[in-house]
Amino acid sequence: MRTRIKYLRQELKMSQKELGDKVGVTRQTINSLENGKYNPSLFLAYDITQVFNEMIFKDNEEQYFVIEEIFIFDDNYSG
């Protein structure tokens, strides 16, 4: 599974630890997600999506990310 976590996190100037703290996981978990070494639970994927929505679109409720825009399932991706 590929993700846009690293790109979005960097755009917000957020560290892996900061994102991990917001969603209740370790920095190492965020690192593993970004490097395709760990697939998140649906709950974690939802929480991460919500953090990005709140930080990026806080003043625009009509525009927001869905999970599939951040977590990209690809049968051919080898990680």
What report would you give on this structure?
This protein is mainly alpha-helical and 79 residues long. The protein has helices at 5-11, 16-23, 27-34, 42-56, 67-70, and strands at residues 2-3, 71-72. The protein has a two-stranded antiparallel sheet. Helix 2 packs across helix 3 (27-34). It is globular. The mean pLDDT is 91.
Kindly summarize this structure in a few lines.
This protein is mainly alpha-helical and 79 residues long. The protein is 53% helix and 5% strand.
Task: Offer a few descriptive terms.
79 residues; mainly alpha; 434 Repressor (Amino-terminal Domain); two-stranded antiparallel sheet; 5 helices; 2 strands; 5% strand; globular
Structural class: mainly alpha
Any idea of the CATH topology? 434 Repressor (Amino-terminal Domain)
Total count of helical runs of at least 4 residues: 5
Distance between the ends:
7 Å
Kindly report the name of the CATH homologous superfamily: lambda repressor-like DNA-binding domains
Strand arrangement, major sheet: 1-2
Low-confidence runs (pLDDT<50, min 5 residues)?
A: none
Characterize the largest beta sheet: strand count, sense, and whether it forms a barrel. Answer: 2 strands, antiparallel
Mean pLDDT: 91
What's the gyration radius in Å?
12 Å
The backbone outline, from C-alpha atoms, is: globular
Helix % is 40-55%
Strand portion: 5-15%
- The overall strand count is 2
CATH class: Mainly Alpha
- The string of secondary-structure elements, in order, is EHHHHHE
| Overall number of structural domains | 1
